[in-house]
Design goal:
The complex is a heterodimer. By secondary structure, chain A is of the alpha/beta class. Chain A has 21 helices and twelve strands. In chain A, strand 5 and strand 6 form a beta hairpin. A two-stranded antiparallel sheet of chain B has the order 1-2. Classes of the chains: A alpha/beta, B mainly alpha.
Chain lengths: 633, 315
């Protein structure tokens, strides 16, 4: 019950749907109350009052060629249209749902026969089948209703069958079967409740069509026959008068339009409530670049890192990226600062959700907005603040001097374009090369990332390549314009262990050959130890420790780093017990003022609840822990 | 690919047969006895029996279907009694205008619908999206026969820009320009509803695709927004839109019945309505069969195009 009131509340909160409901209720209410309303007799002819225009005294909407009151005729006509449309919808829903339920539950030959029958019905253009049925049954309102109902049966049968098949496979249906319930009872008591929302959604989305089409048949003279008139028949009668007395046809048409708009709005609302999967674009579409908050560009903090500033390619300070969803704000990245030297490999480590990927994406404003927003900070690349550059410059930098490789090569390449073309595109958009030159360069790049037979592979689609090969393609794409900085966001996480090692070795080799800096994001300290020179440890959106890799691994200063190193699997030490870190990081929208790790830390003291300053134990190292002196190796 | 097209072509044979069975059964189930109807109330039982034998009505339904199908395959759709000419001739004569009208409307609906859907998706929740969403809602809720009348009133009567009806001017210049001039109002009217549906689904599909990882990859490699939207996102969304377009063709063909009636367009739709009111069953049957077969073939083509666009579907 509470579920149902919840649904009503949702529907009411959707203003458009509520408006639709109001329109439908108004029209339906008027139509139902027609006999009680102080209306003129819709069929009383007054030849002296023919074709009066709207707003004539006594006839608000004017009169038709026989002097009949249009308002009265419209209310009575709407009554007929609504009744016929609703009857057709219920008929189609009942027959189609029954067929779908039985076919989906029984499966086997019966299912095949029903579904082939549905296929054949759907092979007809919608209205033509209805016309053929009317041709057989003869013109008339009931026959038109039946015809429209029949052509809508397939829509119900198909969707209901699909849902039934998925529900019939669930354990509770098996349980009912085993407990000796008959198929009819199982269908009605176990399956039907699950299918009902689908039926309601189909009903509300097809009701509008059915009213339109029955009105259409009446308009053609194949539905309601005089003296009975639905809205469609009124339109048909007024057709010949469109020049001399346009209101006779246009007003009933407007009423149909209004009614169907109402039904469709209501239908969309009902669908959103009952079938949230179909809700159109709830989280919003990611824009071209992350929104940048008003506080950005404030006085930069001095970058942390090696002294020689001329050697620094990227200097980030105070970077704060937030996500706002449904009124709650989460700080995914909070006051993060670091720098990357030319040709250096910087590792960024942390558990999933610690903000390392968001940090990487924030550099070139690739975090989707909405919900993301860069609230503060500075990203200096060669001295320019990337958070302030115009969009066109940002586009030039992306894939140009700063390139990305993303985590899951399964989803990061365009599934419908040959990989060679995707690499070539990176060349073309930056170097303005011709199609042919770019293609040649793409093949060369594919060769450089050790893809065998690159000229053949260039024509492959992503799904034809292995995960490792796809990641090599992504790397080739990133290398296309000889970037100064390669940001690799968990490039090996989705790959097999042996392929991981190969891809890492490839990145390492390319870095050394080209003197390009690499920012390698990973959750695996083993990977960092292998290829990085410096490391940044992130926890709950903050940098908790940083420094040269050998130093940090040899002498971690933060309890979290120590645990993370202990948790890293090492090849050849399979039987070493992995020290899992108990507990979970705090939710990003409920970060404590003090140390976010305190809850999971075995060294925590009450003072950890206060804000933790950043300490510099030795040159080139930072740590955020008040007890860093006591952290053992 | 050719293998796939061939297989898919073979798969449409049973569908077409099914369509023919449905049409045959519908016509065979018409209440009343055609022999009585033809001979009138004073026919002798002897004469009725003779005519029944002549028409094959004394045989079983499957036998009658086989004979009927045989004739159908030879292009014999029977004879229209109201027009007193072969059904095939009449249908062939009216097919061109219907295809011209429906084809133009479908092209218009695609141009408008795809463009509106893309713009609405790219400007989601912006004013363009709001305006387009409203227009789309109005479009899919509009009775097209009413819209035809309103457009006639405004753009043929009050502003005499376009002819109100017909396909050719009765006097004066004729030719392609004249036909095009007559085509504008009916084609626009017919396109509105389909454009609305296509726009709606384009928007939804584009929003879905724009959230995917490969779009982020495109941005990260420096593709500008136009390239991201068109070359990457739309390219991927189009695969799901092609079947939608195929289905809309059916609605356009059906909607042509109203539009041809409103604009006195000499196509199959108007022929069907007239044939139903004169109860010229064979003419209805012929018109429905031909248009349905074309619709089936159009969807076959849509299916093949979808396969060409999406390398992931095994062929």
């Amino acid at each position: 019950m509470s579920d149902r009131t919840g649904a009503w509340a949702l529907l009411a909160r959707n203003r458009l749907a509520a408006g639709g409901l109001a329109v439908v209720a108004l029209v339906a209410g008027l139509a139902l109350a027609a006999p009680l309303l102080p209306l003129a007799d819709p069929n009383a002819t007054h030849l002296g009052e023919r074709l009066l225009p709207p707003f004539s005294p006594g006839h608000l909407l004017g009169t038709d060629p026989l002097g009949r009151d249009l308002l009265a005729r419209i209310v009575w006509g709407a009554r007929v249209s609504l009744a016929v449309g609703a009857a057709a919808a219920l008929f189609a829903a009942a027959v189609g749902s029954a067929a779908g339920l039985v076919a989906g539950y029984r499966r086997g030959p019966l299912d095949a026969v029903v579904m082939r029958g549905i296929d054949v019905l759907m092979a007809f253009p919608y209205l033509l089948l209805a016309l053929a049925i009317v041709a057989v049954l003869g013109p008339g309102l009931t026959n038109a209703m039946l015809a429209i109902a029949v052509v809508n049966v397939p829509f119900f049968a198909r969707t209901v069958r699909g849902t039934t098949v998925s529900i019939a496979g669930r354990p509770f249906v098996d349980a009912a079967r085993l407990s000796g319930m008959g198929p009819a009872r199982i269908l009605l008591s176990e399956v039907l409740p699950g299918v009902l929302p689908v039926i309601v959604v189909t009903l509300t989305t097809t009701l509008g069509w059915m009213i339109l089409e029955t009105a259409g048949l009446s308009f053609l003279g194949l539905g309601a026959q005089p003296p009975q008139a639905d809205l469609g028949a009124m339109l048909g009668e007024g057709r010949g008068l469109i020049v001399t007395a346009p209101h006779v046809a246009t007003v009933p048409g407007l009423v149909i339009l209004l009614l169907v708009v109402g039904i469709n709005l209501l239908g969309d609302g009902v669908r959103d409530v009952l079938d949230p999967r179909l809700r159109a674009g709830t989280p919003g579409r990611p824009g071209m670049a992350t929104a940048v908050g008003p506080g950005v560009g404030a006085e930069p903090k001095p970058p942390v890192g090696p002294g020689d500033a001329g050697d620094v390619v990227l200097a980030v300070s105070g970077l704060t990226t937030r996500f706002s969803l449904r009124g709650r704000t989460a700080r995914a990245v909070d006051d993060v600062g670091f720098s990357v030297r030319r040709g250096e490999c910087l590792g960024v480590v942390g558990e999933s959700g610690c903000g390392k990927s968001v940090t990487a994406l924030s550099l070139l404003r690739l975090v989707p907005t909405p919900p993301g927003e860069i609230a503060a900070g500075r990203v200096a690349f060669d001295g320019r603040d990337l958070l302030g550059v115009p969009l066109s410059d940002l586009t030039r930098l992306r894939g140009g001097r700063i390139a990305y490789v993303f985590q899951d090569p399964d989803t990061t390449l365009h599934p419908m374009l040959p990989v060679g073309r995707q690499v070539a595109e990176a060349v073309r958009v930056h170097q303005g090369a011709g199609r042919q030159a770019a293609a040649t360069r793409a093949v060369a790049l594919l060769g450089q990332v050790e893809i065998p037979e690159p000229n053949l592979r260039a024509r492959s689609y992503p799904h034809e390549l292995s995960g490792g090969m796809r990641q090599r393609v992504a790397i080739a794409m990133a290398l296309a314009n000889d970037p100064d900085l390669l940001v690799a966001d968990e490039p090996t996480t989705a790959l097999d262990v042996t392929v991981q090692a190969e891809v890492l070795a490839l990145v390492d080799r390319l870095r050394r050959e080209r003197g390009m800096a690499v920012m390698l994001i990973t959750h695996d300290f083993g990977v960092v130890a292998e290829v990085c020179e410096r490391v940044l440890v992130m926890y709950a959106g903050r940098v908790v420790e940083s420094g040269p890799v050998a130093d940090v691994i040899g002498r971690p200063r933060h309890p979290y780093t120590r645990r993370l190193i202990a948790a890293a699997p090492r090849l050849g030490q399979g039987d070493r017990p992995l020290a899992e870190i108990p507990g979970r990081p705090p939710a990003a929208d409920a970060l404590p003022a003090g140390c976010a790790f305190a809850d999971r830390c075995d060294m925590a003291v009450p003072a950890c609840a206060d804000p933790v300053p950043e300490e510099r134990p030795t040159p080139g190292r930072t740590v955020r822990c008040i007890r860093w002196r006591e952290v053992g190796p | 690919m050719y293998g796939y097209v061939l297989r898919r072509l073979l798969m449409t044979v049973p569908v077409l047969l099914g369509v023919s069975v449905v049409v045959f059964l519908l016509m065979a189930l018409i209440p009343g006895d055609p022999a009585h109807a033809i001979l009138g109330p004073y026919a002798t039982p002897d004469n009725v029996a003779r005519l029944k034998a002549e028409l094959g009505l004394d045989r079983s339904l499957p036998e009658r279907y086989a004979v009927w199908l045989g004739h159908l395959l030879q292009g014999d759709l029977g004879r229209s009694y109201s027009l007193n000419r072969p059904v095939l001739d009449e249908v062939a004569e009216r097919l061109g205008p219907t295809l011209l009208l429906a084809g133009t409307a479908l092209v218009l609906a695609n141009l408008l619908g795809l463009a509106a859907g893309i713009v609405a998706a790219v400007r989601q929740y912006g004013w363009q999206d709001r305006v387009l969403t409203l227009l789309v809602l109005a479009g899919i809720s509009t009775p097209s026969f009413w819209l035809g009348l309103v457009l006639t009133l405004w753009f043929a009567v009050r502003l005499p820009w376009f002819p109100a009806s017909g396909m050719h001017a009765p006097f004066g210049p004729s030719g392609a320009a004249d036909v095009l001039h007559h085509l504008v109002l009916p084609a626009v009217t017919l396109a509105v509803v389909a454009a609305g549906v296509i726009a709606r689904l384009t928007r939804a599909n584009m929003l879905e695709v724009l959230r995917q990882d490969f779009v982020r990859t495109a941005r990260a490699k420096g593709v500008d927004e136009r390239g991201v939207v068109m070359r990457h996102a739309f390219r991927a969304a189009l695969v799901n839109l092609v079947p939608v377009i195929g289905i809309q063709a059916g609605f356009v063909i059906g909607g042509a019945v109203y539009i041809e009636t409103v604009f006195q367009w000499p196509g199959i739709g108007r022929m069907l309505v007239e044939a139903i009111s004169t109860r010229d069953v064979l003419l209805v049957q012929g018109g429905v069969l031909v248009l349905s077969a074309l619709y089936v073939l159009f969807n076959l083509a849509a299916d093949v195009v979808q396969h060409l666009l999406d390398p992931r579907i095994p062929t």
